[in-house]
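Input sequence (86 aa), recorded before submission:
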Amino acid sequence: MAQKSPTDYFSTSNDFILNAKQTVVANLTYWYNTAGVYGLDKFSSYSELYASVHIHLMEKKLQLSHVSPSPLIHWDAPPPRRGINH
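Predicted structure, token format:
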């Protein structure tokens, strides 16, 4: 018997152009996992928000990027609970 997927997932990623030449771009990415059950494990929902900045140089032939190494905001889920799911 196949087990169900533990959660549903969605994300959105949006770019914001910060100058007229369109060489500086900021990005915000948000993702969310819904609560779910996988076998005997029960998961809570959780999500994160990331940010990055991209600078295009040499007529957009070179791109410098800075991506946040950890989420700006992290809505942490507790570890999965094990047991019989009703």
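Checked by second reader. The chain has a mean pLDDT of 79.
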